[in-house]
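Researcher: Here's a chain I'd like modeled. Treat it as a single chain, no partners, no ligands.
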Amino acid sequence: MTDEIIKSIVSQSYSFAKEQFIIHWPYIIGFFVFIIAGVILQIIMLRSGGDSKLPAFFNRLVGSFTYSIFFLIQLSISYWVFGAQVIDDVWFTLFGIISFPVTGFFLCAIGFWYY
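Model: Modeled as a single isolated chain. Structure tokens:
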């Protein structure tokens, strides 16, 4: 019974997200273009040898979005492979533990974070 409830919630969440994307797609795409442009600008500024960087809130924004993307990728793949049993605190903790260093490595590898 718990599996059916989880499947229902996941299905409703997916439908809601899809519906919201259809309604607000220009704003969502514009926001991601803004973020990607900021990431490219930061990489260019850091590689030019200057001390100029974008504000800390932007770095936190990019870090949190990257972390969320890696977390959701892991959750989606695990849900597809193992089913509803991955919707659990233990799995979420494991995904968070894995996503944190992967995010740091990825952002350092592309040159966005310099530390």
